[in-house]
Design brief:
heterodimer, A: alpha+beta, seven-stranded antiparallel β-sheet, three-stranded antiparallel β-sheet, 3 helices, 13 strands, B: 1 helix, 10 strands, 62% strand
Chain lengths: 215, 139
């Protein structure tokens, strides 16, 4: 049955099929011979069709593979120490009749103190200091430094504002060493304290926040 | 017909630029995605560092002028980057063009590939690397 179907599928005239269908003992042997012949014919046809199909199948063997490299670098988190030295404006006197002024601590390692206003007199024995922090992170990385713009120092109910913060380095720092190793850098903070002529005496304290972030 | 195929230039592909996820800090878990255009984006607790830029991979595909071809990217779960004992999975590969490309009149085209890197919570710091395969074939 399979053979007949394949014969039909290869375009044998319907007449030939009907001849095969009229089976008799006499024709049976002939039919077997015919079947064999058809089988060979079918095989040949199959080979031809395989060659025809060979074109698209052959293209698949031309597939090309490219290997790409992929990389990523996970950096250690950047951290900043607790204050290692207070930002201090030191001790100073106010002559209320001469007006107020400002006390400036430079944002450098030495934290040099200066003042404006004739009513202010700096006490040299208490010179103040710049603030100091250590930043730690991925060696060689650059980072930004930000300080709140204004912060209040209080003494009981009395206040003075510190502002205009300056830093070294500024505005970005670079950690020591090279990437893949731990790097550090010291950051110095300075600021300007605004003192009113009527500023009450006392010990004023406040807090400020330094934020560092990788660039 | 068979003869014309046999004369076709063999399609070839070579990697000309690596797929770089760049430098970043891993806080909580998240991911870094590089688009075929080379733009980095993140999810979760990953913070990108501009000092270590990312880049899409680039491949040079060459073959028959004006021929179209199919691009096969790595399946999810098959590619990872390693740094010693630590690893990160790379999934969701994307490409441009996609999913097929067309070689130019000169028989070449640049194929860009991006993907998404999964970053673990407090992923150990270090330099990670790995490789991936891109297959091209005439269609």
């Amino acid at each position: 049955m399979q053979h007949r179907m394949s014969i039909a599928s290869y375009g044998r005239p319907p007449l030939a099929v009907s001849t095969l269908l009229s089976l008799s003992s006499v024709h049976f042997r002939k039919e077997r011979i015919m079947k064999r012949n058809f089988k060979q014919h079918a095989l040949k046809l199959a080979l031809v069709s395989a060659l025809a199909l060979g074109a698209p199948v052959g293209v698949n063997s031309y597939a090309a593979v490219g290997t790409g490299v992929s990389t990523a670098t996970v950096a250690p988190a950047i951290t900043i120490s607790a204050s290692q030295r207070d930002l201090a404006f030191g001790r100073f006197l106010i002559d209320a009749t001469a007006g107020g002024g400002t006390v400036v601590i430079a944002g450098t390692s030495t934290g040099t103190r200066t003042k404006t206003g004739t009513g202010l007199t700096l006490v040299a024995a208490s010179p103040g200091s710049s603030g100091q922090f250590t930043v730690t992170g991925d060696g060689g990385a650059t980072y930004s430094i930000a300080v709140a713009q204004t912060t209040a120092l209080t003494s009981g109910a009395n206040t003075m504002n510190a502002g205009t913060f300056t830093t070294t380095p500024t505005p970005t720092g670079t950690l020591s060493g090279s990437t893949g190793t731990s790097g550090t850098q010291i950051v110095y903070i300075g600021a300007t304290l605004t003192v009113a002529a009527s500023q009450a005496t006392g010990l004023y304290t406040g807090a400020y926040t330094v934020t560092v972030d990788y660039n | 017909m068979a003869a014309s195929v046999s004369w076709a230039a063999v399609i070839a592909i070579s990697n000309t630029q690596g797929l770089a996820f760049g430098k970043f800090v891993a806080g909580s878990a998240g991911s870094v995605t590089v688009s075929p255009g080379g733009v980095r984006s993140t999810s979760g607790g990953v913070v990108l560092m501009s000092s270590g830029a990312g880049a899409a991979a680039q491949f040079a595909v060459s073959g028959d002028a004006n021929a179209t071809y199919v691009i096969s990217l790595p399946a999810d779960g098959t590619v990872s980057l390693a740094s010693g004992a630590n690893s990160m999975a790379v999934n969701t590969f994307t490409s441009s063009p996609s999913p097929t490309g067309t070689l130019g009149a000169g028989g070449t085209q640049t194929l860009s590939v991006g993907a998404t890197l999964s970053v673990g919570s407090n992923q150990a710091s270090g330099s990670y690397s790995g490789s991936f395969d891109v297959t091209v074939n005439y269609n």
